[in-house]
Design a protein that fits this description.
Among the domains are: about 1-40; about 75-125. It is about 70% helix and about 0% strand. It has helices spanning about 5-40, 40-60, 70-120, 155. The longest helix has about 55 residues, at about 70-120. The relative contact order is 0.03.
C-alpha cells in the first residue's frame, strides 16, 4: 500500500469521525431538550416523593454511626446560613464599590462644572483628579467609635 492510499484512508476516517461527532452532538441536544420537557411539575413531585420514601426506608442516618438526623438538619441549616452571609458580604462589597464610583463621578462633575465657571472668568481650569486617587483616601467613619449593635433588643436584654 502506498503512502497516498494510506493518507486517503486516514482522511476518510477523519471525515467519518467528524460526521459521527456532529451526529452525536445533535442527538445529545435533542436528548437534553426532551429530558427538560419531560420534567413537568407533577413528575418532579412524584420523583421527590419516591426519593423521600426510599431515603426514609433506607435510613441513611443509620449508615453514619452516632449521628442522628437532627444533627444533619443542623448542619444543613448552618451551611445555608454560611452561604447566605457570604452572598450578602459579596453584595455589600459591590454596593460599596458602586457608591464610591458614584461619589467619584459626582466629584469629577463638580470639578468640571467649577472649571467651566472659572474658564468663563478667565482663570485656568484645574485638572480632574485621576480615577484611582479617590480609592486610597481612608474613610473618616473608620476612626469614629463603633455604634451599639443593632441585635441588642429587648429579647436579648432579658437574659
Amino acid at each position: 500500500m502506498s503512502l497516498r492510499e494510506l493518507q486517503g484512508r486516514v482522511a476518510r476516517a477523519e471525515a467519518t469521525l467528524e460526521a459521527q461527532r456532529r451526529r452525536v452532538a445533535a442527538d445529545l441536544r435533542v436528548f437534553g431538550r426532551c429530558w427538560n420537557e419531560a420534567w413537568t411539575p407533577p413528575r418532579i413531585i412524584v420523583a421527590g416523593l419516591a426519593a423521600g420514601l426510599l431515603a426514609g426506608w433506607a435510613r441513611p442516618a443509620r449508615a453514619v454511626a452516632g449521628i442522628e438526623p437532627a444533627r444533619w438538619l443542623q448542619l444543613a441549616g448552618s451551611l445555608a446560613g454560611l452561604v447566605g452571609s457570604i452572598q450578602a458580604a459579596f453584595a455589600a462589597g459591590q454596593a460599596q464599590e458602586a457608591a464610591e464610583d458614584a461619589d467619584l463621578a459626582a466629584t469629577t462633575a463638580a470639578v468640571a462644572a467649577g472649571a467651566d465657571g472659572m474658564a468663563e472668568a478667565g482663570a485656568p481650569p484645574e485638572p480632574a483628579p485621576p480615577p484611582s486617587a479617590r480609592r486610597f483616601v481612608p474613610d473618616p467613619s473608620w476612626d469614629s467609635p463603633p455604634r451599639p449593635a443593632e441585635a441588642a433588643t429587648e429579647v436579648s436584654e432579658r437574659r
